[in-house]
Q: What sequence folds into this?
């Protein structure tokens, strides 16, 4: 069947032109959540600035509640360095239920964070936060955070 | 050329299998910004609850600064109805620079909002906000907002 044999490479070339490999949402969700959990571990240790900022893309934007937006890797490095040098600072977070674009190349997740910051008289205050992170699958096959925004949950009812 | 004529439908079918039409980022950005501006107009009029909530997807999540998250269309309807019934309430926003997934089916934008709310002694207070909205191109070809989160910019320096 010489004609069939000639068809196949053409179909294969046409399919390669689709430019996206098969996308398995469950596998990708697992991968992204694992990467985010690893990021939280690195950040919570509060020591390795370069490793911590490697999870953001070079063009990432961080929009913290009540503080100026932080645009790009250099500004994020300063932000993280200052945080890690703040006595009493710590952060830890957990994200959930990644949602993907149909092609599996962009994703977003909701998350919750716990931060400790210096309080009055040498104490520390613990703050809860809610976050949205948006992630991009870069050409090197690595997920990186491109937008990182958080705000305050409702004020807790007074105890007792 | 009988062989070439036979090839073409096969290549066409293979290409249709790619399942996404050509995506023009500039055209889609224009379309999305226009839709967002139209949404702000409808919301700022403060009258048409159903039209206002039609820009969110049925599964949308709204995460307002300092208030409980609002999940799904029914809860969003209550939220918007309550806002529109609040004397002195108004909202207006502007988004910019949409960023798209490679397939053009998911997008996000930064935005800024101006809200007026009741203040002390019958006055109104004007609040500035920063927002991230995430948009999904639904199967009917319409962009709908799936995540809508905002927080406060840094407190303004005291005037004078």
A:
């Amino acid at each position: 069947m010489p004609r069939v044999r000639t068809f196949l490479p053409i179909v294969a070339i046409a399919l390669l032109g689709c430019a996206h490999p098969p996308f398995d949402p469950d596998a990708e969700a697992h991968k992204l959540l694992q990467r985010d959990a690893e990021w939280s571990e690195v950040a919570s240790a509060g020591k390795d600035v370069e490793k911590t900022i490697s999870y953001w893309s070079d063009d990432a934007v961080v929009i913290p509640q009540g503080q100026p937006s932080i645009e790009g890797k250099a500004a994020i490095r300063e932000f993280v360095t200052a945080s890690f040098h703040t006595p009493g600072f710590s952060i830890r977070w957990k994200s959930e239920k990644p949602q993907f674009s149909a092609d599996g190349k962009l994703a977003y997740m909701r998350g919750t964070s716990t931060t400790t910051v210096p309080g009055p008289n040498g104490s520390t205050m613990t703050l809860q936060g809610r976050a949205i992170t948006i992630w991009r699958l870069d050409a090197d096959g690595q997920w990186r955070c491109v937008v990182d925004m958080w705000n305050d949950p409702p004020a807790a009812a007074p105890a007792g």
Summary: Residues 25-45 of chain B form the longest helix (21 residues). Chain B has one domain: 25-151. The CA atoms of residues 117 and 160 of chain B lie 24 Å apart.
